[in-house]
Backbone:
């Protein structure tokens, strides 16, 4: 499991990437995302959080959606896209 929080794009936005390497880790990933989201909002006063997942990573998409993130856009050509298939970007609006 990997979480990477990047303070980028301004003081009220946090970008992160997530990956789970085994199905049995889905519960831990879900709990970790909920905790990370709450921490970012309470400690960094983040108003908007973005999550990026590799295209085709349906398990991580479900985790994001169950935690209140909604699909924003697809991103192609990113340097950190290991397979070149694109990334799906999700957003969490803490003001909602």
Residues:
């Amino acid at each position: 499991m990997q979480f990477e929080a990047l303070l980028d794009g301004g003081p009220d936005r946090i970008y992160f990437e997530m990956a789970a390497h085994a199905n049995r880790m889905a519960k831990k990933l879900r709990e970790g995302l909920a905790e990370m989201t709450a921490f970012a909002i309470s400690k960094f006063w983040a108003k908007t959080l973005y999550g990026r997942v590799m295209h085709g990573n349906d398990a991580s998409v479900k985790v994001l959606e169950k935690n209140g993130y909604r699909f924003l856009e697809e991103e192609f050509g990113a340097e950190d896209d290991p397979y070149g298939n694109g990334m799906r970007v999700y957003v969490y609006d803490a003001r909602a």
Observations:
- Helices lie at 26-44, 58-66.
- Residues 2-93 form a domain with the Aminopeptidase fold (CATH 3.40.630.30).
- The chain has one domain: 2-93.
